[in-house]
Specification:
Shape: globular
Helix content: 25-40%
Structural class: alpha/beta
CATH class: Alpha Beta
Oligomer: single chain
CATH architecture: 3-Layer(aba) Sandwich
Number of domains: 1
Strand order of the largest sheet: 2-4-3-5-6-10-11
Largest sheet: 7 strands, mixed
Number of strands: 11
Order of helices and strands: EEEHEHHEHEHEEEHEHEH
Distance between the termini: 49 Å
Amino acid sequence: MSQNNFIKNPQLDGSDFYWSGSQTGVLLIHGFTATTAEVRLVAERLHQAGYTVAGPLLPGHGTHPDDLNRARWPMWLERVKLFYEKLLRDCTQIFVIGESMGALLALELAAQHPEIMGVMLFAPGIKVNRLWLANILAPFKAYIPKKGKDDRLFWKGYNVDPLRGAAELRKLQKHARRQLSKIKQPTLVFTGEYDRTIASDSAEIILKGIQSRIKHHQHMEKSAHCILLDQEQEEILQTILAFMENPKQQPLS
C-alpha cells in the first residue's frame, strides 16, 4: 500500500519547523503516530506573539508505519535534543511543550536540562489504556487499525497503531517515570474530559512524582486527547502565554 493509505490528512504539513523570533524559545513535541501538524497551530500563534518556535518530526513518523516499527525511543529523544540545541544557540530561555508521547520526551529533556524554564504537558502518555497489549500482539501483527472515528481537520498522522513502535512507547513510559524526581521546573499538566487514550490518573502520577514547587493541573472540560487541536485551543493558548510570561507564578485554579 502507498504511504497515503496509512496517513490521515496527507495534504497537511507535518514536517520539521524552526521559526526565528525573540530570545525566548519554545520547543513543541508531537505524539505517537502523529506529525508536527499536531502542534503546528499553537506554534504559529506563539510565533505570531514573537517567540522563536521549533518542532521536530520524530523518527518513524509521517512516512510509513513500518518505519515507526523500526524506530527506538532513544531515537525520538535524540531528535528532540537536536532541536533543543538549535534553540540554545539562538535563545536565552526555553520552554518545552509536549503532547501525549511528546510529553514524555519533554520530561526526559527537562530531567537532563535543569536550565529549561518551564514544561507544559498535554494529555501526557505516562499511562496509556490497553498499551500493554502491544507487547502481546507485536510478534503476530505489524499494526492494527485505530479505534473510533476522528474527524479533526488539522491532525496528520497514521491511521493505524504500529505495534513494535507501541512497545517502544511502553519502554519510554517506564524510563520517564524514573526521571520524574529530577523535574524541578515549573510544570503545567493539561488533561481532557473526553480523552479515552490516557488513564485517568496520568496527571496525578506526574504531579506526585515531580519535585517542582510550581505545578498545576488544568482539566479541559470540552477536550479529548489531542488537546492542542480541540475546541478549547484559545483558552489554552492564553494559559501558555501567561505561564511563559511568569513561570514562577502559581496559576489560579
